[in-house]
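hi! just following up on the protien thing from before. the input was this:
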Amino acid sequence: MRNMTEDPRGRGVRPPMPMQQQSSPGTTAELNPQPDHGETSYKGSGKLTGRVAVITGADSGIGRAVAIAFAREGADIVLSYLNEDQDAHKTARWIEAAGQRSVLIAGDVASQTHCRLVVARAIEAFGRLDILVNNAAFQRSYERLEDIDAEEWDRTFRTNVHSMFYLSQAAVPHMKPGSAIVNTTSINAKNPSPHLLAYAATKGAIANFTAGLAGLLAERGIRVNAVAPGPIWTPLIPSTMPESAVREFGQNVPLKRPGQPAEVAPAYVLLASGEASYITGAVLPVTGGRPML
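and the predicted 3d structure came back as:
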């Protein structure tokens, strides 16, 4: 993939980051500095040849990096995203440049009807479904408990947790033994940020959901795991955090910098591939050295 002797402290940009804010959900074009999704660095080796993957939140950030990596490993991709059409089409072009097929589906995964449509479109387009990556997420930061209203709490859980249930329930009947589900949790599952109360609570729920679903699907030969990113530089950050937090983003991990989406994607490749045949119910941290206690 990359030079194995590369100093991990030097990849990407170290804080302080440039002052910036975006409106939610944010776009890659406005992000400064631009993130690395593996566009020029990720080299595939056929780990996912012939497979079909659904990736939610696939327009940008971690989702884009995973889509690029999966495509270069030989998978066709269904790109699920909210409404970020420009970012999603750019991701699709990277998939097609890798010689793989892509299908784009815009809509809100907080809706069970839409989740069923995503899976139905995958089957219609490709006739199979081997990998489900539940990556879409919503977050906002708040200084005071009283500022989080019931609608905000409900939206966060519906987007981050309910969608995983809806999509998994729709996908599993089409999955054969050897298929895989990979969920995105977070270091917040174990070390919650007080200002991300709703988001952190959903990430704890996702870790628990992953372990339980892994046990439930083991008898069908379907593996379920999760990746727990630490601070990763994506449009979600300046579109959901105050400028002061964006400026210092990534400073609180041992490597003293935010991670790049391309640094997270190989974890998803591993968990989706046959190389992880004895791994299920696990949470794989990608946190820049910050422990999940």
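Residues 52-286 form a domain with the Rossmann fold fold (CATH 3.40.50.720).
The mean pLDDT is 96.
cheers
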